[in-house]
Write a structure and sequence with these properties.
single chain, 137 residues, alpha+beta, four-stranded antiparallel sheet, globular
Length: 137
């Protein structure tokens, strides 16, 4: 069986701009691209989004988690994490440096592939820490 690849981009920002998942196009406007954003974006937050693996242009579920909740794993998320029918991404929106992942949330993200990026995020000397999105299929 041949492998199928999905071109996509996940953006986080250190500016007051909502995060984006771009499917089928570069980050610039493209007629065949699908651009997904949080339904209710908030500054100083994490956006956790699940896409349908068979139709990744469709958002299945999302959480917008305030940065102050940086040690709490959102309730009900394991249902989606343990299902191979979903692709997930985590992006931040203008996340305050004091709200990098801690405790259970850090361990959760590291468990699903974000460990290297999380380790480097704690050493960035900036007022905000945009943590790029991670995705697992």
């Amino acid at each position: 069986m041949a492998s199928t690849f999905l071109p996509y981009t996940i953006t986080s920002t250190a500016q007051k701009v909502k995060p984006t998942v771009c499917i089928g196009a570069a980050f610039t406007s493209h007629p065949n691209g699908t651009y997904l954003h949080p339904d209710n974006p908030q500054d100083d937050s994490y956006w956790i989004v699940f896409l349908d693996a068979k139709n990744p242009r469709q958002k299945v579920k999302e959480w917008v988690v305030p940065g102050a909740n940086n040690s709490t794993v959102p309730g009900g998320i394991d249902t989606y994490m343990n299902d191979p029918d979903y692709i997930f991404a985590v992006a931040t929106q203008y996340l305050d440096v004091t709200h990098v992942p801690q405790g259970d949330f850090y361990n959760f993200l590291a468990k699903y592939g974000a460990g290297q990026e999380l380790r480097s995020s704690s050493t960035r000397p900036s007022v905000t820490v945009p943590i790029p999105g991670w995705a697992i299929s």
